[in-house]
Write a structure and sequence with these properties.
257 residues; alpha+beta; six-stranded antiparallel beta sheet
Amino acid sequence: MKIHYYMLSYRFEALVASHLEPEAFGLYMAVGTQKNTRGNVLFFEIDPDLHSDYFHLEDIQERCAPHKDGSPKRSKYISVYRVMEHLSLSAFGKLYLTTADGRVINLEASGYDLSNNSSGPNLYQELCPVSPLVLSALSPDVFTKFMTDPCNPVGVPRIFFADLLLDHDESGRLAGYLPYSDPMHIVDCINELKHRRTKQTKTVSRNPHIHGFFRTIRRGFFLGDQSGIKYYPFPEKRHLEVEYAKWWRSASESLVS
């Protein structure tokens, strides 16, 4: 059986070998194992020809062998620590988004158009290897460089994060349809960032819990370091409602992050 490599990248990181195709793997991770405390699953498909001096892959055929009855090995964990930084950026393929009830869509990486940068603070949910919710005056590409700068005392070798919605109503408050638990705190953080020009980022929450996480995605997901960035654009709402209707309904109805 063909072995696939997947990197789990939501709340924790892990490199996993599996005989399951991506959609089946997402379903299994979301609802097919008692190890998961019901919630979303995000994972990357990793180059199947992966070679590494860091990960122990020389005996992976033996460790990820089919069961005696011929059924596929659903998951064999290879590493659960410092995984992202030890994979080359080129090894990351499609990004798969799985809802709490196991519905899966995939996003293809594309070049990031700098014209997509918007003025004003951006709300970023860091996903891996750290997970604070932060406001930043920096665009996604510059934020990536900032967070992975070796001279940054709170930086990381590589970062994966989502760009979230910050829509406002006519009164200046966050739009009521955004499912953030403390919207007034976010507004206070925005005002602080605007009035302190020397401050580029502001932590909103060290341990965020966003209900209906997928409903809050704006431009999409970003993965990068000092060498470059991969951008995984999120589908427009009209495409979600037509082409991915079942997935979007599941993502919209779920109150589990």
